[in-house]
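Posted in: Structural Biology > Protein-Ligand Complexes

Title: Requesting predicted complex, flavin-adenine dinucleotide in pocket

I'd be grateful if someone could produce the 3D structure tokens for the following input. Sequence and ligand are given below.
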Amino acid sequence: MNSSAALTAFQALLQPQQMLCAPVDMQPYLIDWRKRFFGKALTVLLPSNTAELAQIVRICAEFQVALVPQGGNTGLCGGATPDQSGQQVVVSLKRMNQIRAIDLINQTMTVEAGCILQTIQAAAAEHNLLFPLSLGAEGSCCIGGNLATNAGGTNVLRYGNARDLCLGLEVVTARGEVWNGLRGLRKDNTGYDLRDLFIGSEGTLGIISAAVLKLYPMPLCQWTSLVATPSITATIELLNLFKQKATSLLTGFEMMTAESLNLIEKQFPQMANPLGENPPITVLVELSDHESEAHARNLIEEILAEALDLGIASNAIIASSIAQANTFWQMREHITLAQAQEGANLKHDITIPLSALDEFIATTDALLRKRFPKVRIINFGHLGDGNLHYNVAAPAGSDSTIFNQANEKIVHDLIYEMVERFGGSISAEHGIGQLKINNLRAHKGAVAHDLMQAIKTALDPQNILNPNKVLSIKSA
Ligand code: FAD
Ligand code: MLT
Ligand code: ZN
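-- Reply #1 --
Done. Output follows.
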């Protein structure tokens, strides 16, 4: 490694404002959103186009300097935070934020990696088109980060995750070459799927510089409802009733436990549950319709009436305006912020087959409570996808930092053991990053893990792309 030669080469390549070296300037890039991971860096670089990005990677390859790609820095497992060595370079894609093209006939949009997700949604909406990826961090996360983590969010039920919404990629490889795979094709069976290899690889195989995204017709209207249910079993029955009756009109099905909404009431009292006292489970259901307002309204009313008759719902309200629907969504999206304000917590972003979810929760809750009486379990998530954000917080009144330091591994291991027993995944949508790196081999199995390592070594033999994220590999 020759860091000083690399710094000299970066200086020759970039404008001073594209290269941050002062600690105060670098600081926001060195800590993750949850304040769970802290790092140090040689410098933070902000390329403004693919050619500059490729040149940066070539310099890193020549001088064997590791680099950490970063988008909006909203990731929840430490993937975008450099290590403690002070020898890694953070490469922020923020300045590469151009929408390169919108093809209205092909219904695609070509964007640079640093485009903010909300900007992409708004650009599509100007043409009455929908880019369906939607998540609480959409005002600051970038599409490159969304693709690198294969982000999920609240529309996966109907439109799929980031992978399903991407047709093509432009990627800078570990050698600093540019792979131009920016094709807007819905069918392309030409050998190994490189696009799918880079999506979800969390910056460890290549740096995404641009992407072709799929657009959809904008629904004519949306109806949003909050539904009280007595249990997880009832909530899953409600989901299946909506799937059966509303079919593809069902675009959102988000679950919030009383514990998670109690936290909203405490941290953001103005966002308290419009259903009144928090029932065991509150579900946010959204239907999107292309036919008429009346069609969707009648349908949601009919399904809710049946759910109340069946006893799988105990109360329900339908938003009477877009503004009220937005308040329902705000309550849901603010749970993560309410948790952050409450103090450090232990996050788990898991998927369990819906048929096993009820038993998983009952078993895991009981084991945790036996080991840690009074521990707080704050569950919510994208139930329509079987994706549960199973979060554990220290007992009320105790010091969360001390609790986490002493018990983080025990809690993770206990929960991941149950995830295995019930046939689930340790990451539904947030990825592996640093947080779950030690759990990956046991979860994937040795064969899959070795194959992943072989791919990493083939594509990045010097291990300069986001080392020690997803996989631990010794640098050459
Ligand atoms: P970053 O945090 O900057 O980076 C994430 C990872 O991608 C890192 O490993 C980084 O090295 C890599 N990376 C970034 N850009 C590139 C690139 N151009 N090329 C290669 N690698 C790159 N996630 C969900 O899936 N669903 C949710 O519902 C959801 N809700 C959230 C709500 C809140 C309030 C917050 C704070 C986060 C939420 N997240 C959610 C997590 C986060 O927003 C997503 O993981 C998002 O996709 C990260 O995008 P980013 O641009 O911030 O990426
Ligand atoms: C969400 O669904 O709100 C996010 O994935 C964030 C989280 O898990 O806290
Ligand atoms: Zn989520």
